[in-house]
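This protein record is not my work; I was only asked to verify it. Would you go through it and say whether the fold makes sense for this chain? Here is the record exactly as it was handed to me.
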Amino acid sequence: MNIDDLKNAWNEDDSYGGTPEISIEQKDKINLPLEKMRKNMRKEFWYTLMVFVFSFFVVAICNAPLKFKFYVLVLVASMAFVTIFFFSKFFKLYKELSNPALQTYDALNDLLVQFNLNKQYYLSFYVSFIPFLVCEIILVIEVVPWMRELDFVYILMILLGFVIGGASLVYLSGKRWFEKFYGKHIRQIEQLLKELKS
């Protein structure tokens, strides 16, 4: 068997037919939710930046003991470092959304895997703030005079209530925020991929 016969046999045996290309109409349908997601990522970055600037400003001008202000500033700075770590992960996805190589079914499928991974990062980001919440509650208990006079059991109940309630609230709000900003667009892309596959 010569080389030409091998090439012909290979082409005839290609059962998959190659990676399906995306038509111009499908590209337009995909680019719309991707661009909305990029816009939402930019908005979220600026919202987060404003929250931290506002937090530092409020702590700096509040009328509180210097020790309390120092502890709160350390907590806010630590939260900023955690936020920078997670935003570095989000930024990789942001760059990937503008990748012009998203022209095949496989590339979009890989992008969906990244969306699911980033959803886990996103929820982890919100859950990572629970220890900061606990530290802030402990600081408040230590600074507010009438709370220092409470019995240990009451303080423990307050702390547990805030941790359980705060953790639930943080987790649910993170999940809702993700759904509002990204979830519906991810589902649109999943639907387009199903159409492309069939």
Remarks:
- Confidence is low (pLDDT under 50) at residues 13-19.
